[in-house]
Every structure is written in C-alpha cells, then in structure tokens.
Design brief:
By secondary structure, this protein is α+β, with helices and mostly antiparallel strands. 25% of the residues lie in helices and 32% in strands. The protein has two domains: 141 residues, Roll (Nuclear Transport Factor 2, Chain: A), CATH 3.10.450.50; 114 residues, Nuclear Transport Factor 2, Chain: A (Roll). A hairpin with a 2-residue loop joins strand 10 and strand 11.
C-alpha cells in the first residue's frame, strides 16, 4: 500500500498557479507553449491526474528522478502505477505554491488518502525542472491531517501569497541561521533574534502559538527525553517572505525528514508550518534517498 504514496501525493497539483486561494486539482487542457515553471509543473501534474501519458512524456524527462523511497525512479515506472488513482479516488488541493530558480515547492492537502496512512494528509512537495524546462526530479514529505490542534489553527491555513520578493536571499539566510542556532542548538539563547515575540502563528498541531508555545513544547519534549534533533540542512528554498528548509534529524528514536516553512516579516519569523516524516530503511524502491539535492 505504501507504494501508492508518491502517485497520490503528486497527482493533484494542477492549479491556477498565481492564485493565493486554494485550488482543487481538476483535469484541464493548457497550451504548453511559453508556460512559466509553475504552469509547467501544474500541467504535468494535471496530466498525471488524468492519465495523459502523452503530455507527461512531453513535459518530463524519461529518467525522472524519484526521492519518495517507495516509488521506483524513472518516468515509465511512474506511469505504470497511475491506475491506482482512480481506484482510490484520492484528490489533492494546493494551498501554497512558490518558486526558487528551477525548484517549485508546494504545500498540499490530500483527501481519500487511506492508501498512505490516513483519510486526509498534508504534504510538502518539491519539483525540480532542468535547464530545458523539463520536469526532472521530485521530493516530498507527508503527515496525517489533525482536526484538533493545540493552537486552534490548521496545519495549512494562514498567509499564502509571497511578498518582499527583493528580500528572498536575506530571508533564506535568516531561516537557515534560525534552523542552525535554534533547532540544531548552536545558539538557542538567540531565539528572539529570529522569532517575533509579538506574533508567531504556529501550525504544528501539537504546539501553541508564540514563543511561549515553543518553550512549553521544548520543556515537555526534554522532560520526555524526546526532543527533536536536527543534524543537517539539505536545502533552503524561498520566494520573498516564504522560506522552506529541508533538514535531516531524529525524533522518537528514528531518523526523520523535517520540512519547515517560515513566513518572515521585518527580519523575523512570524508564522510556521511543518511536516515531519520518518525516513524508512526497509522496502525501498530506489536508492536515491529522501534528500540528495
């Protein structure tokens, strides 16, 4: 059943790429001439949803590289698994879509998602396009959607539209330092240098809003001898005031992939979303790993 994971997590992503509102993923025909990178990704994923293999082969490389550990790498093995979509009736909704160079990164909700663990799931997906504009590589991480949260927010609500596009590089550097100093523990006392004391909207379902929520969570997890351990940052992607960091570490005595999305205002993080997924060591369909950027 876990082989279904990537197929269903990537198929629902067709959308009006510049809209700040969530979009359900429906099949539609789009002229593939002169599309921007977001539109190319949306068109490819719409073709996946409709089992339009001609368009998929037109837009993606034959050696499409897969980092979901349960899916074989390559475009044709992926195409061979498409019938499972109709069998499960899984649908996807994009909440946020951003671009950093050749990378398009997305925040998504999945329904009828029992094949990969729960009725509803939340994911981050990253797609890389090559220099010719072809879909070339995919990474993701997924977690169950939680209905009742400690902060009374959902895992996906909040701001969706990027601003401060001229500050992308500065905001990426700030998010990287935040992870290094706070989450990796190099300089934890500098937390107020990175996180706003006035506003910090938290979307991790187990943590309350604000600095108080973070400190309470750290105190609780430390008392359980089960604190998150971030070991390495693999990728930092940003568009304006939104920055996604992809890190590797440990939690619950298991290796984990940590995806953290920050919204930054006036040089400090004011909103945070995340997905944490265990890194499997058995039953792997490829040797690419969940990182390898």
């Amino acid at each position: 059943m876990r082989q279904v994971f990537f197929i269903l997590s990537i198929t629902g992503l067709v959308l009006a790429c510049n809209s700040p509102k969530s979009k359900n993923y429906d099949n539609h025909n789009i002229n593939t001439v002169s599309m921007n990178k977001k539109e190319t990704v949306g068109t490819f994923l719409g073709a996946v949803l409709s089992n339009d293999t001609l368009t998929m082969r037109q837009l993606a490389n034959a050696n499409y590289i897969q980092h979901n550990p349960f899916i074989p790498t390559g475009l044709e093995p992926f195409i061979e698994m498409l019938p499972v979509l109709q069998e499960n009736g899984t649908t996807g909704e994009n909440v946020r879509m951003f671009q950093d160079g050749n990378y398009v990164f997305m925040h998504n909700i999945w329904k009828n998602a029992k094949p990969f663990g729960a009725d509803e799931m939340v994911s981050f997906d990253i797609i890389r396009l090559d220099d010719n504009g072809k879909v070339a590589e995919h990474w993701d991480a997924m977690t169950a959607l939680v209905k009742e949260t400690a902060n009374e927010r959902t895992q996906t609500d909040g701001s969706t539209t990027a601003s401060d596009l001229d500050k992308t590089a500065k905001n990426k550097a700030l998010a990287k330092s935040l992870v290094e100093d706070i989450l990796m523990g190099k300089n934890p006392n500098k937390i107020t240098d990175y996180i706003s004391a006035e506003q910090y909207n938290q979307h991790n379902p187990a943590i309350k809003d604000g600095l108080v929520g973070i400190l309470e969570a750290v105190e609780y997890l430390s008392a359980q001898n089960n604190m998150f351990k971030y070991h390495k940052i693999h990728k930092v992607l940003g568009e304006g005031n939104f920055v996604l960091t992809v890190s590797e570490g440990e939690w619950n005595n298991k290796q984990q992939a940590f995806y953290d999305l920050f919204r930054i205002e006036n040089g400090k993080a004011v909103e945070h979303w995340d997905v944490i997924q265990e890194i499997p060591s058995e039953g792997l369909a490829n040797e690419n790993g969940m990182f390898g950027f």
